User: Fold these one by one.
Assistant:
Number 1:
Amino acid sequence: MSHERVKNVSQLAPCLVDSGVVVNKADMLRLLQDLAQVSYSHLEDGVLLSEGQGLVMEVFADPQQATLVANSTLYINVHSFDYLEIGKTVCEQSHFDLVQDNRRLRLVPLSDPMKEHLTRTVNTATLEAMVADALSASWDACLDDDHNFLE
């Protein structure tokens, strides 16, 4: 029985909470695609090569394309990196380190995903209400036109 229990435990998927190393590309995609505005640091052998702020435009997985950081925009290809480290800065802010050999691209979110989600939800609800109002007004206009046509 204990052997079965050990066997079942070894089949469990990893669970990372606020820190850890992610090697699965699909998991890396899932973590990064919610990022919006970030500050980034590009380090090689621990030496800071560049840093700045930008907007994550796209996160994708394609072994034929590059990760691009330019003009305050980031196009991140998870295939450009061996793994992703999740951690916290000294200020207790989450960071995501994309690591490939001696190169590290650190991303620190500048936007709050909870606020972004609420804003998107509110914007979606507002847009849906506007569309419903427009459709209703259009139907009313059509009915008025039909009524005038019948007279």
Note: The chain has three helices and eight strands.
Number 2:
Amino acid sequence: MAKSYLPLLIIFAVSVANAIMMGALSHVMNPRRDTPQKSMPYESGMIPLGDTRARFSVKFYMVAISFIVFDLETIFLVPWAVRVRELGWGAFMAVLLFVAVLAVGLLYEWKKGGLEWD
């Protein structure tokens, strides 16, 4: 039984050794040389203006969270849609309830102004 795990253990050991070796070599072969350009907050070639700790509106985060929630809806709906005929009416009613709850949530968020960028 242990012989069947030997190739897996060898691959794991080689992978760990490779990761450690690459990290050590990159540290040794590329010493850190600080320059004023590298010490700047943004290295995009543009000179930063003002404070780098700018605040974002809470509405930005609300829209982002809403996008994630409604985007994750597809993760649940696509597998169901692939097997809709095999699953029957029970699964159809469950998905209908799921979509109804999401619709009520979207309506609530819309009425509260959570989708506004102002």
Note: The two ends are 65 Å apart (CA to CA).
